[in-house]
Amino acid sequence: MMLPARSLVPGGGTSASVMVTYKTASLDKTAIILTLVLAGAPVAASLVALSAGGEVRSVALVIAAILFVVCFATYALAPSSYAVSQDRIIVRRHLWPSSSIPMSQVKSCYPYPQLSRAKTFRLIGNGGAFGWYGIYACDELGTFRMYATNRSKAIVIGDGAKFILSPEKTESFVAAVHEYAQTRS
Question: What is the residue-level pLDDT of the chain in tens, covering all 185 positions?
């Protein structure tokens, strides 16, 4: 179960612990291309609006506004960093509230670089612009929640409910999760 991070107040019934922050990995090539296409779409629609007149201009302006909102929302929801503490893993987003994975749910944590080659299916979420987030499925992992920016730096967390993150420093992230998970047991 994913909990909103803002509901977990420091010192609110849990012992104080050090929180280690990790940058997300840089976008993979597919995500870069999809991000440029999404960011370029409102610009292209605006240019059409500026060069056209009458009804075409009005329609192009409406399309540009809708595309701008979609682009902004996609950026806002994208993961910006991760934090690991004794009681949780926090997924921070650019302009949206953070989400939290309770450390009690973390039964395993391991690199999964083959995700970039796996046939994944997006059930709901974003498929590459500013990153990969939402609910996905693939044969090897089943259904999982992804908050990643680079699928070749993927890390699988959990056993029952699975989460995929992509920190820049995968080895130290996995080591920190293992260390904190062991202190809980």
Answer: 444 444 333 334 444 568 999 999 999 999 999 999 999 999 999 998 889 888 888 999 999 999 999 999 999 999 999 999 999 999 999 999 999 999 988 999 999 999 989 999 999 999 999 999 999 999 999 999 999 999 999 999 987 789 999 999 999 999 999 998 877 66
The pTM of this model reads: 0.84
Tokens of 92: 């921070």
Q: Do 44 and 76 form a contact (C-beta atoms < 8 A)?
A: no
Please enumerate in sequence order all residues whose Cβ is within 8 A of that of 8, keeping only pairs 6 or more positions apart, or say none.
14, 87, 88, 100
Put the strands of the sheet holding 155-157 in their side by side order. 109-111, 155-157, 162-165, 142-148, 131-138, 121-128
User: Residue 125's CB: how many other CB atoms inside 10 A?
Assistant: 15
Domain boundaries, the chain: 23-185
Do residues 135 and 121 make contact, with C-beta atoms less than 8 angstroms apart? no
**What contacts 99, CB < 8 A, 6 or more positions away?**
2, 3, 4, 5, 90, 91, 93, 147
